[in-house]
Amino acid sequence: MGRRCYIAAMSSAAIPSLPAEEQLAQLERGVVDLVSREDLLGRLKESVAKGRPLRIKAGFDPTRPDLHLGHAVLMAKMRQFQALGHEVVFVVGDFTASIGDPSGKSKTRPALSREEIDAGAKSYAEQAFKILARDKTRIEHNDTWLGGMKFADVVRLAGKYTLARMMERQDFKMRWERGDAISIHELLYPLAQAQDSVHLVADVELGGTDQLFNLMVGRDLMKENGQRPQIVMTTPILEGLTAHADETGKIVGDKMSKSLDNYVGLTEPASEQVGKLMSISDPVLWRYVELLGPIISDVPNDAWNKADPRGMKLMFAEAIARAFHGADEAKKAREGWEKQFSRKERPDEIPEVRIEGSEPVTIVRALVVSGLAASNGEARRKLGEGAVKLDGETTLKDDKHVLVAGRHVLKLGRKWVAVIV
Prior knowledge:
Layout: H1 20-27, E1 33-35, H2 37-50, E2 55-60, H3 69-83, E3 87-92, H4 96-99, H5 114-127, E4 137-141, H6 143-146, H7 151-158, H8 163-166, H9 170-178, H10 184-200, E5 204-208, H11 212-224, E6 231-235, E7 244-245, E8 251-252, H12 270-277, H13 282-291, H14 309-325, H15 327-342, E9 352-354, E10 361-362, H16 363-369, H17 376-384, E11 388-390, E12 394-396, E13 402-403, E14 407-412, E15 415-420
Parallel strand pairs: 2-3, 2-5, 3-4, 5-6, 9-15
Antiparallel strand pairs: 1-6, 7-8, 10-13, 11-12, 11-14, 14-15
Helix pairs in contact: 1-2, 10-11, 12-14, 12-15, 14-15, 16-17
């Protein structure tokens, strides 16, 4: 099958048999916005009576090659619908990614190349099955229907929505009031996403809370096309690894994002997942436990002991790694972290990087070439903070330090690299 066909052939969909009220009680758990509860209950009753699964849609723009735990919060709700016998459509937004979702953005997003989008689309389609049931998931690429639209079609689509209504959107309104640029193509993004719902005749569309406006446009456009408007459900946004609690105890910080390097990827090695999750603050741990509970349902609720946050963090990190890599890899990752950090021992296997060239190899250059630091500036900053160790013992602070010929083991944060000069 080609890229634009279903990646996973749908098996015969189960007929939803659980009473509608019981389904609703499960589905509204952990949801922020539900438009509307009465409509969803009515459609669930109709589904049970007619033996027709509801069609549940959620879109993911492949702006980066990795799905992460932030996506997992939404995908867990998709899996819940699957478990109840409904049809889930995972929309890979390979067309909408070329526009760039302006949701929550303070400036126009840079355009992606077709190669970047296609690489991400291929990756997303496979990574979806880390959480969703392969035989119950329908994968669609929205370039299939959006990419073939003629200019006249786009004009007709734009004619179904007014500028005044589009400018009610908070991020557009804020940018307009500041005098910041808003590109015309950004105004088309919510319409393109809404057209996905029209094409698929969605019963329910899921998204994060930052997607509420786009999802509501989908309802409006479906009405304009003579369809029953979709039910809208939003799930909370998962904050990134650097989030913290403010003085009131509220968790604050940027949402999890690969571009901000504050994420845990679904396909990252188990050791990386454990290492990253052990870096979060204690208050953030309980936020993660709350939002990612469906992913780690094998951990009983009474196992969480807030009196031992470090122990709980280890248990949580291992549970996440187990969900994506299996029990053996997760246990190995946990034991590796304990060995490396609890007992202050270096790992058994350390990646090696050979630095070629005759010029003196400064510690700054070694940190950048080895990948321990992203730039010379970051390398100097980490040295100034005393975060760089040589052979696991000596703290290096002099950014002019030169490495002599030989093998040097450098440690920065959780990472170790052997540099061969």
